[in-house]
Amino acid sequence: MQLLDLTGTPYERGLLHGSKMAPNIKANVQTYLNRFLMGGAPRDVIFDEAKAWTLRFENHDAGYFEEMKGIADGSGISLAEIGLLNARYELSYTLYTNEAAAANDQPLSHEPEGCTAFGIQPEYTSSGATIMGQNWDWLEGLLGNMCLLRVRSDDHPAYLVLTQAGIVSGMIGLNEHGIGLCVNGLSSKRDGTHLHHRPFHIRVQDIMRSTTMNEAMKIILSSDRVCSTNWMLGCKGGEVLDIETSPDVAHALYPKDGLITHGNHFINQTGIETEFERIAPCSLYRTPRLERLIRQNQQKWDMEHLKATLKDGFGAPKAICRYPNPDDPENARTVTVASVVMDLDNLTMDISDGPPDASPYKRYRLS
């Protein structure tokens, strides 16, 4: 997996990102375009939406938009296509809400993004560190087209974030203050109702630039959201919590006996009409199974034990460690694109480039 060291102005960071990852960015654009076309959206409508989201990014965060421009110029790929990638979360989850509604009449054979995450307080780890991790399961076409960004600036904390080539921010990461983030896709009926709120990938960047746990939580909770998301936050020194959010409702969940796990369904459904289980019921067993697998080791948990649990194949291909289902349409097949285990005290990310039972973990450091 390519590690990009990014410094300088937002535009300069984007220019390097774009030039280094141009073929991968092009592949990712095609992967998402194919997925959206398969969902029934015409090509011109997709790009009209991508252009509209590009303007929203500019209005929300000028620096983020400048970095998008740098990626476009560095890769030779249009700004609208870079906008499509950076708004992929909002575009995807609006689509899946529609697909879930369609499943009332005829259940779908293919499933959306399905991730399984955990967070552990330091009293329960062999190293005494706060540890978080997850399998990130998404479109098969993204395999080999990920990258890790190590971003340094005088204007904000340094951070490491795992992303898809062409996206300014990412999904999973940690920063120099020991703040860590894992995310899981959720779906509810109000997704996409209000399109003016701060986009998902900008919020991830905001969290990576936070200096305190309170600041990171405020980024999630201080305003309503476009789409549903599960945010698992941790910080060195021993705190881990989980925030389930729909566009206008949020609930906090806490570790029990040092451990919390989460998949792709709302655990607290108060005030929420949840949709993900209609399309991806496997989340209902992945979440408790990961907790049980971790707890099977009665000693304090170490990194190797935690990595082993993320290789679990129960329910294959729709397992904690996911493989593509050949019965799904080609453009909707999902796989564990990357597996991540983070040490928030020592500021390391162990990452597999693909399913962890077939791809070895490699350690990356913020320092």
Task: Report on the architecture of this protein.
By secondary structure, this protein is of the alpha+beta class. It folds into 2 domains: 2-102, Orthogonal Bundle (Penicillin Amidohydrolase, domain 1); 116-365, Penicillin V Acylase, Chain A, CATH 3.60.60. It has 11 helices and 14 strands. The chain has helices at residues 10-20, 22-38, 43-60, 62-75, 79-86, 88-102, 200-208, 213-221, 276-279, 283-295, 303-309, and strands at 2-6, 116-120, 131-139, 146-153, 156-164, 172-175, 179-185, 229-235, 239-245, 250-253, 259-262, 334-343, 348-353, 361-365. The strands form 2 sheets. An 8-stranded mixed β-sheet has the order 1-4-5-6-7-8-9-10. A 6-stranded antiparallel β-sheet has the order 11-2-3-12-13-14, covered by helices on one side. A hairpin with a 2-residue loop joins strand 4 (146-153) and strand 5. Helix 3 (43-60) crosses helix 5. The protein is globular. The model is unreliable at 104-110 (pLDDT under 50).
Strand content: 15-25%
Distance between the termini: 18 Å
How many strands appear in the DSSP assignment? 14
Category from helices, strands and their pairing: alpha+beta
CATH class of the largest domain reads: Alpha Beta
Shape descriptor reads globular
Helix content: 25-40%
Mean pLDDT: 93
CATH superfamily of the largest domain: Penicillin V Acylase, Chain A
Please write the string of helix (H) and strand (E) elements.
EHHHHHHEEEEEEHHEEEEHHHEEE
Q: Mind telling me which CATH architecture of the largest domain this is?
A: 4-Layer Sandwich
CATH fold-type name of the largest domain: Penicillin V Acylase, Chain A
Distinct helical segment count: 11
Q: Ranges with pLDDT <50 over ≥5 residues?
A: 104-110
Strand order of the largest sheet: 1-4-5-6-7-8-9-10
**Number of domains as seen in the coordinates:** 2
The biggest beta sheet reads:
8 strands, mixed
Radius of gyration: 19 Å
